[in-house]
Amino acid sequence: MNKNKVLFITENRTFGGGNKYTEDLINSCSLCFSEVHFICNKNGLNFFNLKRLKQPLSSSQEIDIYNFAERVRHLPKIVRAILRLIFSPLIIAGNFISLLSLKRKIALLSPDLIILTNGGYPASLYLVFLTAFFLPKNTKCVMSIVGTPARKSKWFMRKFWRYVDSRLSEKLDYAIVNATNIKDALTESFQFSSAKIAIIRNGLEEIAVERARRQKSGLIKIGFLSRVERDKGIYELVSSFLQLEKDFANIRLIIVGTGSELQAIKEITKTSINIETHGYVEDATTFLSDFDIYVLPSYHEGLPYSLIEACRAGCAIVGTKVGGIPEVIKNGHSGIIIEPRDTTALKEALAKLIRSEEMRRTLSTNARKVFEEQLSLTAMNTKVMDLITALSKS
After folding, report:
1. Side-chain half-sphere exposure of 323, counting CA atoms within 13 A
2. Which partner from 62, 76, 352, 354 sits 20 to 30 angstroms from 124, CA to CA?
3. What domains can be seen in the chain, in order of their start residue?
4. Residues 35-90: pLDDT tens digits?
């Protein structure tokens, strides 16, 4: 394989860790490809921070992808079902034409490697069908999957989806995942070959984080840095904190992030003087350096960047036993791991850390070591280049 042109293709309609993982993959590939090209859905570039790229993109294009579910998800379920019945043929036809157009674009560009960046799996069906049925022959192709795979399909569609899975696995040279549990799910439930899955964990650049400010105010600051959504465990966290503040006068909960549940959370917490909400911030380093405890009580995850940022900042961490979280945070050593949706366990874990400064300090030190040893951007770059070298030899 020549190392001249690499083409990234993605469908992305929101901010999140998947964007950042794509940006980091682009930066890694910039070290060994002379040209980096990018194709995404209409307005998709708005959700990427192009300032983070080490080198400018050689080209970027937007294409029409008709995502019906995204456009109607705010409507009642019965209305969505009726609209889907009416418009599905048109949407399928529109995306079929779009895929043929994209196939021509790829042929004209003639990249040496295509990297499709996905969320979970199947996630973007557009990318799945592009890979399985529309890519030019003999195309070197990799797909990143950084969220927990899941599929809810009707019984009469299962054979069809098994065929799509096997076809996709056959066409891919590699799937890139950022957690072992994602690899396990793909091999056990989606017919992916274990030998064609590379685990490349997210990485962050090393920066100096000032942690000396902690404890000076006498407050113990508990931080949440993520999208404010139900499946991030925000309601369990707020419920736990509202109970804890009755027993501890020196605690504060700081919620950083935006999402569909933010206004509801503001309403629930408006009577508490110990809860702050800050909405979306581009750089949360200052917040993290001030957190004594970082909490991510998600229902499902890949390997979230916010967790890596908390390790880098040396926070005492409370996380749930989902995705890649327990792969990097060892219970009782570099954090406390609880079951998702367990408000009682979350409250008890926080109470234990609030009471024990020594425990906070120990977990903080060990979380920082986890970052230094496993989660640096240098380590990620090395693994990406190793994968590209393997592709060159195949």
Report:
1. 27
2. 76
3. 5-203+377-393 (3.40.50.2000), 220-374 (3.40.50.2000)
4. 999 999 888 888 788 888 989 999 999 988 877 666 667 778 888 788 878 888 88
